[in-house]
Amino acid sequence: MATQLKKIWQFLQKDVRELWQPTEAAESGAEVSKAVLELAIALGWLAPPVAIAAAGLSFVGIATRGIKFYREKVNKQPTLEEFVAIASPLAYLESLNELAQTNNILKQIGTISISEPIKQQMEKLQEFQLDENLAKNALQCFPKSELAQVLNRLFSTQLQQAGIDKNHAQLLTAWVAWGTPKYLKPATAEIPDSVKQLAEVYLTGQQPDKYDSIDAYLKERIATKPQEKVFDETFTFQDIYVPLKARRLDGNGKLDEQEAIDLETWAKEMLDKPDKVAFIQGGPGRGKSVFCRMFADWVRQHLHPIWTPILIRLRDIRTLENSLEATLRTQLQNLDFVNSEPGWLTDKNTRFLFLLDGFDELVMEGRTGGGLKEFLQQVADFQRSYNQPPAVGHRVLITGRPLALQGIERLMPTNLARVEIELMDDSIQQQWFTKWSAQVGEVESLEFQSFLQNQNCPERVKELAREPLLLYLLARMHRDQNLNVQMFEGVSGVGAKILVYEQSVNWVLEKQRDNENFRLTGLETEDLRRILQEAALCVVQSGGESAKIAMLEDRLNRQLAKLIEEAKKTAGEKALNNALAAFYLQPCEGDRGGAVEFTHKSFGEFLFAQLLKESFEEWAERDRRRGYKLKDEELYKEIYDLLGYGGLTPEIVEYLMALLDASDEFKPVELFQRLEDFYLQWCEGDFIDQETETLPQKKVQQLKKHLPDSNIRLGQRQVDIYAGLNAMILLLELNRYAQSKDDLNDKIAFHPCGEKGTDSFDEYRLLPIIGYSHCIDVTGFLRTVGSFLNGTNLSGANLSGANLSRADLSGANLSGANLSGANLSGANLRGTNLSGADLRGAKLSGAKLSVLIDLSNKDDQRQAGRLSHKSFWRGLIIQEKNGNTEELRKNLASITWDENTKWGDIQELKTAENVPEALKQQLGIV
Q: Which range is least confidently modeled, 248-252, 638-642, 900-904?
């Protein structure tokens, strides 16, 4: 039976002064604000004269005291409805009191007269009919309950009368409402067990210490993030952070041509879009991680408890569970509010904003098994399920590098709202200079700006200065007089970025020479450089994010290892850890058994590329009388050691090729010959099929020693596959490099199946490799090599039935290749030579053919039939140059298409034979 609130509140007609007096020291609290008093008066819980003596009042624990006061004055135990009717408005006041201690808007509120609009809302509140069902709603999800809405309207009306605009008033009332449940739970201690048990059923997920645990997490893990030091500087991220801009992307990853948007504003707006996951992508050093830490703290300061931010670095996730819920529970199991309550995600009184930083840094079984696509689908399903009735309302914001999406972009969930971080424009850059000036002085800041504006400053350097990480590195180099225009002469493209990284590493090495930890090791500068490179290799081979110090120590040569052991005697067991602390390395969060990670992923990638470059130069070094200095057996051992784990990433390969190109010691022909010899033997299984202990086996033993708990599959086959595929990537890159050099294009030519018409040609060579790569997972070949196949010569290759979906085959030579039944859906076939290719039954849905496809074969007119017979053309992008051959204009009767097929301006279709009538009507062909 419903009861009006005013009837339940009749006990307030008695003397209530003692209700507001603290009963113990813990309830004294801070000074009561005017805003709280005014609301208490409007509720009828305080009479105006009482406000004069506000100094003696306390709102701490008022909900609990209110229930106790009711029992004593009425001399009866409260029912569930009475408990909610009394405890809820008092808990609301307690929530407001907490907010008023820090909120500047509320601090400015003075006396609010009881106007007619306020009277109307007061009456509606007192006339509010509360029954058991509405009481249950208030306990299960107070912020969205009917009672909360009535209280919100009264408070909002007061705020607006005090001169606060409607939007801010709504935000403040929401803030107070979401903070109310925190104070309801303790009040249940004052009600009889029968009512208490029922109330606690409705208050599911609200453990006694839950809110304290959440507050501790926010204080220790979120509030501290902006205050962390930038590398080894004395200033923090907060000191030099500036808001960034972004541009929206459509479902295919295409940039929106509209004006760039403010990234923070967009992220805030996404909180009001329950049907979308906020998806932020950006290249290395664009500011994704710093944005996450800054935005998480902004939410903590301005929106908690409406939203409670949880920041997770995806590199720290070791295992991808069957659902995001399970993954989150595993990752956050050390937090009390997660560990102590199975229903922490289903409690409607707490909404989380999960900031998942670095989808490209996932380290798990899934990463070697198509896991990113699966993970993104889990994220999409998570937000969708928690925003359907009965909605809890959690949100997800996820960031990462766009290259990680290669091959899965068309398969991504549809409820992702995607943006890409833009380069810093002049306005944002100027804001950064202002903050930099506060750290280094105005003179230095202005001189650095003059350097960038100098007409002799290379354009590439000016471009780099629009990326947050590189802008900071350039500014630091300039501050320390390690930056000048001359050093960039003749440098272009990625070379300028490499030069900045090199100078940064050199700068740190030089600066730390006087560091006590450095001197205790007894290592020379070049020794430390080598250790950094080996650390980078360990990080890559440990999954790409962190590595154990023990693994690094095992890789050091005898001389370096001896120096480290001597240092341990004087500096302790962590001598190497301490020495590395200043070199862009830091202990992992949780210090996983002495593991370290690079402060920025780019440094690890660059240093690993340096290590590869130096090794490749040694591989190609000749001994005048005895051939190569490094014998074949040692070469093969090093190949498995360096390349036998994980695919080379585009970033690492880009750094590597630029480093080699700039090196006087680079011998491309010799390096190509040695890698090709290895590749051909690997294709025959010579290394995995040895009867004695194999090189893959030795590498597996080394990895398993230091990665015993890894969820990434480790076995001889996986190591063997990666060694061969990485060698193939390097051969493809060397071939590409040679084609751009007049003195090399006739000396280096890589054909994965051998050159057609020669004794080395084997049309089936690549097909078994693709199948063998399934030992990694079914997309192992595509994910590892797929993005490096552009321009590849596969003329005459038999790839029947091969899965080449979403591979980059642009500019490739597939003339005469057998592609019957092959899956080319989503593949990039721009400029691909398909003359004479057998495409019968091939899947071409979503394939990109938008530049030039040569399907002409004057000697074999049967190719037209091979193209059309049971071919799938759904989503195929076809433009004018695709239709300019006689063959393509022939029999089109069996071609199928859908609304995603883009036909462009194909005049030839007007004369083509057997064009389906439906297609003619669609294209307006008369």
A: 900-904
With cut-offs at 50, 70 and 90, classify the pLDDT of residue 366: very low
Q: How many Cα atoms sit within 13 Å of 132 on the Cβ side?
A: 7
42/242: higher pLDDT? 242
Nearest-CA neighbor of 608 among 567, 649, 566, 636?
649
**What does the block give as tokens for 518?**
């450095």
- C-alpha–C-alpha distance, residues 359 and 353, integer Å: 16
- CA-nearest of 528, 464, 458, 448 to 487 is 458
Over residues 343-363, the mean pLDDT reads 88
DSSP secondary structure letters along 295-346: HHHHHHHHTTTTSEEEEEEGGG-----SSHHHHHHHHTTTSHHHHT-TTTTT
Residues 6+ apart with CB under 8 A from 12: 44, 45
Kindly report the backbone phi and psi dihedral angles of residue 873, in degrees, each rounded to the nearest multiple of 5, phi listed first: -120, 20
Split at pLDDT 50, 70, 90, the class of 709 is: low
The amino acid present at 162, given as its one-letter code, is A
Give the CA count within 13 Å in the CB-facing half-sphere of 117.
Answer: 11
Q: Are 461 and 452 in contact (CB under 8 A)?
A: yes
- Place 874 in a pLDDT band, splitting at 50, 70 and 90: very low
* Torsions phi, psi for 352 (to 5 deg): -105, 145
Given a cut of 80, whether residue 715 has pLDDT beyond it is yes
Are the beta carbons of 694 and 688 closer than 8 angstroms? yes
Is 650 buried (19+), middle (13-18) or exposed (0-12) by CB count in 10 A? Answer: middle
Specify which of 320-329, 665-674, 865-874 reaches the highest per-range mean pLDDT: 665-674
DSSP one-letter string for 612-659: HHHHHHHHTPEETTTEESS-HHHHHHHHHHHHSSSPPPHHHHHHHHHH
Helix or strand (DSSP H, E) at 98: helix 80-100
Mean pLDDT value of segment 627-652: 92
Beta-carbon contacts of residue 832 (< 8 Å; ≥ 6 apart): 809, 810, 811, 812, 813, 814, 849, 853
8 A C-beta contact, residue 100 and residue 33: yes
Sign of CA dihedral 666, 670, 676, 681: negative
How high is the pLDDT of residue 793? 95
pLDDT in tens, 437-488: 999 999 999 999 999 998 888 888 898 899 999 899 999 989 988 888 888 8
Token digits for 659? Answer: 């480093």
Distance CA 146, CA 138 (A): 7
Taking the CA of residue 355 as centre, how many other CA atoms within 13 Å lie in the half-sphere pointing to its CB?
Answer: 26
Are the C-beta atoms of residues 824 and 843 closer than 8 Å to each other? yes
The mean pLDDT value of the chain amounts to 82
pTM > 0.70: yes or no: yes
Rounded CA separation 91/545 (Å) = 45
Rounded to an integer, the average pLDDT of 869-897 is: 42
Asked whether 817 and 797 are in contact (CB, 8 A), the reply is: yes
> Tell me, what's the pLDDT at 14?
59
C-alpha to C-alpha distance for 92 and 158, rounded to whole angstroms = 15
Q: For the chain, list the domains and their CATH numbers.
A: 3-203 (no CATH), 212-421 (3.40.50.300), 442-490 (no CATH), 518-691+715-731 (no CATH), 751-926 (2.160.20.80)
Taking alpha carbons only, the member of 415, 300, 370 closest to residue 713 is 370
pLDDT of 514: 56
Q: Please report the pLDDT score of residue 885 as a whole number.
A: 40
840/820 Cα distance (integer angstroms): 5
Strand, coil or helix: 708: coil
Rounded percentage of the chain residues whose pLDDT exceeds 70: 81
Residue with tokens 């007192």, as numbered in its chain = 126
CB atoms within 10 A of CB 119: 12
Q: Please, how many CA atoms are within 13 Å of residue 686, restricted to the half-sphere of its CB?
A: 11
